[in-house]
Amino acid sequence: MSMSSAALEAGAGDTALAREPSVGDYVALLKPRVMSLVVFTALVGMVAAPGTLHPILGAIALIMIAVGAGASGALNMWYDADIDARMARTAARPIPRGHVTADEAFTFGIILSVGSVLVFGLLVNWVAAALLAMTIAYYVLIYTMWLKRRTPQNIVIGGAAGAFPPMVGWAAVTGSVSLESLVLFLIIFFWTPPHFWALALYRCRDYERVGVPMLPVTHGPDVTRRQIVAYSVVLVPLAVTPYLIGFGGLTYLISSTALGAVFLALAVKVYRVREGREADQVARQLFGFSIFYLFALFAVILGEHLVQRMLG
Question: What are the tens digits of pLDDT across the range 174-186?
Answer without folding.
Answer: 999 999 999 999 9
